[in-house]
């Protein structure tokens, strides 16, 4: 193919991707990035352009009104920032990102559209002396974050006016999801939203993630039958979320055995339990450690079915400035403490 034809084909592919309704990875962690083709790379994503339908759903959940000041956390490509500027005007939109290069590229794109929001580069989870939401300035009416956090940072609560709202992805380990809370001083309460989305974790480095050191796996203890399988966990998002309430900050990972069999594994503090996806012994669980984690899975499954399989928006969420936070089942008030 002639160079002009290849250029046109490449341009058409870029336009097709940009106007598609899917999330597009735009940056990779350099420590994990490697080429797998002439123009293809793989690695741990550190930034992306969120699928337009998810952005639309989040903005509906955010419920922005005329005159609202909004803090957009995770500038990225600047797409969400541009939508907010178009709706509210640039002077009411503030956006933060941890990566200087991404922020500067977004600034250039936004300026080409005549949009001039307030952009800053810092870890938005913590106080920042140059940020426009500092004490003495008006609080934000809305805060929206396209990154996940383990609990809503106190810095976000302090920069949101009383009656304002924060919308973010809450990462509880096994599962998480979008929560929308209303701020009252430095306390906030709300619920998980009908819109479901998961985002990359907030980080303190412009390029890479902090690597946690995990304890070694405990020796295998036993294998037994179970009525709750890996397929049940994979199929039901609200159940995974409920399980995260029972086992906060445990991990759900895929485990590949030496023979190629694939299992879904829950692990925490060296304790683990896995149920096969492929291979022999479907409907069984193998576990190791001081406790049988899968017994918690089975108890949560019973509760979820006995209560009519509630969706995620049937659960409330509340947090305090000292990091304490909890969820509850809205119909009957059953509560789970999430504080590490």
Automatic annotation (TrEMBL):
Q: Which UniProt keywords apply?
A: Cytoplasm, Methyltransferase, S-adenosyl-L-methionine, Transferase
Query: What Gene3D superfamilies does UniProt report for this protein, alphabetically?
Result: Vaccinia Virus protein VP39 (3.40.50.150)
Q: What class of enzyme is it?
A: transferase
**E.C. number:** 2.1.1.77
Subcellular location per UniProt equals: Cytoplasm
Q: List the GO molecular function terms.
A: protein-L-isoaspartate (D-aspartate) O-methyltransferase activity
Q: Enumerate the SUPFAM superfamilies for this protein.
A: S-adenosyl-L-methionine-dependent methyltransferases
Could you mention a single GO BP entry for this protein? methylation
The family this protein is said to belong to: Belongs to the methyltransferase superfamily. L-isoaspartyl/D-aspartyl protein methyltransferase family.
Protein name stated in the entry: Protein-L-isoaspartate O-methyltransferase
């Amino acid at each position: 193919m002639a160079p002009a034809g290849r250029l046109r084909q490449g341009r058409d592919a870029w336009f097709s991707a940009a106007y598609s309704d899917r999330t597009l990875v735009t940056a990779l962690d350099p420590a994990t990035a490697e080429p797998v083709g002439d123009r293809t790379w793989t690695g741990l994503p550190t930034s992306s352009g969120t699928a337009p339908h998810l952005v639309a759903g989040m903005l509906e959940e955010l419920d922005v009104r005329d005159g609202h000041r909004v803090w957009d956390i995770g500038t990225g490509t600047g797409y969400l920032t541009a939508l907010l500027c178009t709706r509210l005007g640039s002077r009411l939109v503030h956006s933060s990102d941890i990566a200087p290069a991404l922020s500067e590229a977004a600034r250039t794109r936004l300026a080409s559209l005549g949009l001039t929001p307030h952009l800053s580069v810092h870890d938005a989870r913590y106080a920042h002396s140059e940020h426009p939401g500092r004490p003495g300035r008006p609080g934000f009416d809305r805060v929206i974050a396209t990154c996940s956090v383990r609990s809503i940072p106190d810095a976000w609560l302090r920069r949101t006016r009383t009656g304002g709202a924060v919308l973010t992805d809450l990462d509880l380990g096994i599962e998480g999801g979008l929560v929308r809370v209303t701020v009252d001083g430095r306390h906030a309460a709300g619920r998980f939203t009908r819109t479901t989305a998961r985002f990359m974790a907030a980080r303190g480095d412009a390029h890479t993630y902090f690597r946690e050191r995990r304890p070694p796996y405990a020796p295998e203890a036993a294998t037994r039958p179970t009525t709750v399988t890996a397929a049940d966990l994979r199929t039901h998002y609200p159940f995974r979320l409920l399980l995260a309430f029972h086992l906060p900050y445990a991990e759900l990972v895929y485990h590949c055995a030496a023979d190629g069999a694939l299992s879904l594994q829950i692990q925490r503090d060296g304790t683990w339990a896995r149920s096969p996806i492929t291979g022999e012994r479907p409907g069984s669980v193998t576990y190791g450690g001081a406790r049988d984690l899968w017994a918690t899975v089975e108890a949560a499954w019973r509760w979820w079915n006995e209560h009519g399989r509630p969706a995620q928006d049937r659960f409330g969420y509340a947090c305090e400035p000292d990091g304490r936070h909890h969820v509850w089942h809205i119909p009957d008030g059953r509560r789970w403490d999430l504080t590490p």
